[in-house]
């Protein structure tokens, strides 16, 4: 059976590396990329179709209808998105730093956008076709693991994403009993998101997008070893489970 991949946030560095992993291991795959602007896929090595999307609910509904009309039913969906800083706004070090605009921006990007992507894909899921849906979370979204404090907005946005995926997994167990949800912590990756914080990363712990993409692709080959249907996995780049 030909595998069908839907990649959200396809313009990100990890997503680009992930497309190359698909090309390397699954050259016959059907790949559908969603991003805010067209991306250059000439170096990927396989043909991909693109859908330009602002991630509004209206535009995502158009995506749903297009995929339904074309009978495109995914076997794997990966949502590559995330925001930690912009312009002069950086993660908070103390309560006094909490800012309404920064908080709402991160909640919109890190929490609302991924669940709207999942909402757009849900009508394409069924009891017949196994599908794995993955979103990028972060270890700092763990309530149990929070021993350092700070980073209020980013922590909250990822913890909320985890809760939304947990809730969706319960519903999808009834609607599409072969669908598994996964929350993936990529580690500190050499992308724009981590640039301001890379000087504090221990040696050997700053990963390339290619390494992260390879780890994720490998892990997703056997999703049944990561989680049961109805219970999302919350894992790191090694496949180790993170405490919620």
Secondary structure blueprint with pairings:
Elements: E1 4-8, H1 13-25, E2 30-35, E3 48-52, H2 57-69, E4 76-79, H3 100-121, E5 131-136, H4 152-175, E6 179-185, H5 209-219, E7 233-236
Parallel strand pairs: 1-2, 1-4, 2-3, 4-5, 5-6, 6-7
What does this structure look like?
The chain contains five helices and seven strands. It is of the alpha/beta class and 244 residues long. Strands 3-2-1-4-5-6-7 form a seven-stranded parallel β-sheet, with helices on one face. Helix 1 crosses helix 5. The longest helix is centred in the last third of the chain and has 24 residues. It is globular. 36% of the residues are buried. Pfam families: adh_short. This is SDR family NAD(P)-dependent oxidoreductase. InterPro entries: Fungal_SecMetab_SDRs, NAD(P)-bd_dom_sf, SDR_fam.
In N-to-C order, the SSE pattern is EHEEHEHEHEHE
Fraction of residues in H or I helices: 25-40%
- Spans of at least 5 consecutive residues with low confidence: none
Structural class: alpha/beta
Fraction of residues in β-strands: 15-25%
Query: What is the CA–CA distance across the termini?
Result: 35 Å
The 3D shape can be described as globular
Strand order, largest beta sheet: 3-2-1-4-5-6-7
Q: How much is the radius of gyration in Å?
A: 17 Å
- On the 0-100 scale, what is the average pLDDT? 94
Number of strands: 7
């Amino acid at each position: 059976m030909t595998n069908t991949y839907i990649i959200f946030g396809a313009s990100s560095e990890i997503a680009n590396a992930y497309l190359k992993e698909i090309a390397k291991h699954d050259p016959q795959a059907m790949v559908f990329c969603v991003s805010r602007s067209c991306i250059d896929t000439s170096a990927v090595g396989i043909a991909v179709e693109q859908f330009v999307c602002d991630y509004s609910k209206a535009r995502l509904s158009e995506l749903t209808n297009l995929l339904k009309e074309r009978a495109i039913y995914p076997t794997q969906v990966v949502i590559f998105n995330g925001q930690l800083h912009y312009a002069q706004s950086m993660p908070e070090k103390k309560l006094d730093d909490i800012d309404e605009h920064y908080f709402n921006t991160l909640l919109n990007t890190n929490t609302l956008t991924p669940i709207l992507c999942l909402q757009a894909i849900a009508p394409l899921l069924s009891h017949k076709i196994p599908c794995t849906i993955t979103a990028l979370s972060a270890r700092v979204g763990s309530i149990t693991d929070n021993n350092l404090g700070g980073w209020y907005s980013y922590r909250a946005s990822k913890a909320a994403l985890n809760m939304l995926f947990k809730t969706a997994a319960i519903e999808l167990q009834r609607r599409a009993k072969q669908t598994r949800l996964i929350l993936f912590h990529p580690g500190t990756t050499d992308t724009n998101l981590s640039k301001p914080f890379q000087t504090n990363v221990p040696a050997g712990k700053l990963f390339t997008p290619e390494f992260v993409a390879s780890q994720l692709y490998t892990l997703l080959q056997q999703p049944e070893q990561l989680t049961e249907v109805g219970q999302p996995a919350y894992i790191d780049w090694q496949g180790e489970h993170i405490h919620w």
